[in-house]
Amino acid sequence: MRAPFTAEQFFDVFRQYNLSVWPMQVVLLAVALVLVALALASPRSSRVVIGALAALWLWMGVAYHLVFFASLTPAAYLFAAAFLAEAALLAWHGLRTRRLHFALPRESSATVVGAVLIAFALVGYPALGDALGQRYPAVPTFGLPCPTVIFTFGLLAWCVRPVPRSVLWIPAAWALLGSTAAIGFGARQDFGLLAAAIIALGVMLWPRKRRMSDAAKTGRPLQLGF
Predict the structure, then answer these.
(1) Number of compact structural domains in the chain
(2) Distance between CA atoms of 189 and 149, rounded to whole angstroms?
(3) What is the mean pLDDT of residues 147-159?
(4) Among 30, 45, 62, 108, which is most buried by a count of CB atoms within 10 Å?
(5) Does residue 224 sit within a domain?
């Protein structure tokens, strides 16, 4: 099914957003770097990190989908609702149930995957867009859905298992939907969005199944670290 707008209109929304919110892109990028540092060095700051991540999803739902993307398609209202729901889920599990939190040491696979995805979201994604000929301000900057969803997968990969599956559904769905931009609009860096989802979900979900299997074999109850 063809999109109800052209590639030129699609990238022009990024242009309008970037020109209108400047210098919030710089602020959001600085916030992301602080969150990475806190997640790595201070697990006691888990509430701050997850709370700020929830705020990023709130920003995307309102500042991008409702204010700008809705001018192209009514589907933006549905996307906004989904992003606000994800913000609520992150806040609930990060601040209330505390099922989303960080701890040291981490599994090596989770450490590597999280670091690679975060580096791609903050550095690789914009660099690839530039290599493809996309020029600011008509580019997706951090704080817009695709790079920020990749960043989300990176941070969640660092969380203690099991990560609540409810917080994974919406980012995974966006990875599938957003990757269509790589085909329909030539935003080929968005192929990385789907790859990030597959890799992150594999790391986050596979160890949980393995531990459940190990617990069943030994006859011991499954122990979860909190």
Answers:
(1) 1
(2) 13
(3) 97
(4) 45
(5) no
User: 5 lies in a domain?
Assistant: no
> How far is the C-alpha of 32 from the C-alpha of 27, rounded, in Å?
9
Q: Which residue has the higher pLDDT, 208 or 134?
A: 134
Domain encompassing residue 106: 19-214
Whether residue 140 has a cis bond before it, omega within 30° of 0: no
CB atoms within 10 A of CB 96: 10
Domain-embedded: residue 7: no
Report, as an integer, the average pLDDT of 109-124: 96
Residue-wise pLDDT tens digits, 3-27: 778 889 999 999 999 999 999 999 9
Pick the range with the lowest mean pLDDT from 4-8, 112-116, 139-143, 221-225: 221-225
Residue 100 within any structural domain of the chain: yes
pLDDT at 220 over 50: no
